[in-house]
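Customer ticket, subject: "Can you confirm the structure for Bifunctional protein FolD?"

Message body: Hello, I'm evaluating your service for our small team and ran a test protein. I'd like someone to confirm that this is what the system normally returns, since I don't have a reference to compare against.
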Amino acid sequence: MTGNTPILMKSAPVVEQSLSELSSKCSALKEKGITPTMKVILVGDNPASIIYTRNKKRFMEKFGAECEIIKLPSNLSETEFLSKVKAIVDDQSNHGCFVQLPLPKQLSHIDVGELIPPSKDVDGFNKANIMNLFKGEKGESALIPCTPKGIITLCNHYGIELLGKNVVVIGRSLIVGKPMSLLLGNHNATVTMCHSRTQNLKEHTKAADIIVIAIGSAKFLTKEFLNNSKKQYIIDVGMNQDENGKLCGDADYQNIKELVAGITPVPGGVGPMTILSLAQNLLQAAENSL
Ligand code: NAP
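Agent reply: Thanks for trying us out. I re-ran your input and got the following:
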């Protein structure tokens, strides 16, 4: 699985390899009269959200799917927002929809996962899809939350065994930490979910075979959190700005990359895997619509 040189777990080769599979699946659906189509609901003009949604649209179009970004004004009332979303999800011409987060303050309490029906829930946030995770779905046909699903794809690509491994997930958010913990359990890992109230976090991380960190704190995971084996894998979900305004992860990448068996870079690691999973979920939703 690894020699002495740490594996730099980049997403690019995985995405490259998956694109041909996505293209042929998309063509097969088109031959059956279905053009996989996604609608993205973007409220307001958050610069990061504009970039994320644009990247997602570009990626969907790369393999032949259609993607429309529906822009709504930031001062939309809750009633207007709900009725717009309803019209979009009820439209039979699309197979997948999602609301780009974050929402403006007046809408931020809304559970967007519940606005999208399970069959079109390409983000995997609807309760019915989360329930599949609880029941033990590993993701072959279900709509699984994108970032956790992408991390499993990345581990598979780089031959990182999950079965029986001790995996520490740091962070327990609804979009990453919690679904990640469930999905890893479904892949037979032994999972410890840590958070801001965890006592002795370093004891947990030192005992881990794999650490997944998703806390949103730049370069938090330093060498003090690792053991001396050089056999640990680090999956860095974080997207932060460093002191120079450059994108960086939750792991102190420069100072730990030689001390581990493998690590995901930021950028170029988990982020693009999330978009790949979204594409896979869209094709799955389109296929399910048959
Ligand atoms: P979030 O909702 O803010 O949750 C952060 C989690 O981290 C919470 O569970 C919190 O614990 C825990 N935490 C915070 N500080 C901690 C500490 N010092 N020690 C241990 N746990 C700590 O975050 P999120 O939405 O999951 O996002 C996390 C990061 O991933 C962000 O940088 C985000 O931008 C990034 N992200 C990237 C992608 C991608 O595709 N690459 C996707 C989603 C998110 P408590 O629950 O106790 O408060």
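A couple of notes from the result: The two ends are 40 Å apart (CA to CA). Residues 146-270 form a domain with the Rossmann fold fold (CATH 3.40.50.720). Feel free to reply with more questions.
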